[in-house]
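Dear colleagues,

As part of the handover before I leave the project, I'm documenting each prediction I ran so the next person doesn't have to rerun anything. This entry is a single chain, and its sequence is reproduced below.
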Amino acid sequence: MSMLTGNTLFVPLIVPKADVFASASTSDVFKMTNHNHATMYVHCGASSADADVTITVQEQTSSTQAGAVDIGFNYRTRATGDTWGALTAATTAGVDPSTATLGGWTVAIELDADELSDGSNWVSLTVTESTDSVAIVGGAFAILSECRYAEDVIATAIA
């Protein structure tokens, strides 16, 4: 039997809560040394107005966010049901997905370990709301996949 939990690692990044992005929210960092791929999800509920948020991804050299640098990434957005948009490249300036819908949205960020600079094995994401015009219920998590080493219990990726 093939089980998702035996091949992937779920990593909580930003704990879901009300008005989660009232100020810039930087996630916990996670390391990619044991996995070849990460898919990070930022998920938000419905809002009464465009929240005007920007999502950026950082690479760093340690779990303390030393040497944190914004990096480009690929992402997809989902505004309704289980239908995802096309894979799109984002620059180091990030992406603002919130204009897509007021009914809630999800962004899936795809990142391969070989896209990171040498020595930068740690990753985090930041969600910044430019003006706190509306309370957003949301959060973020990552799924690390393509384990580099077979294990019965997958080793932690957070500090």
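The CA atoms of residues 23 and 129 lie 6 Å apart. The mean pLDDT is 85.

All the best with the project,
I.
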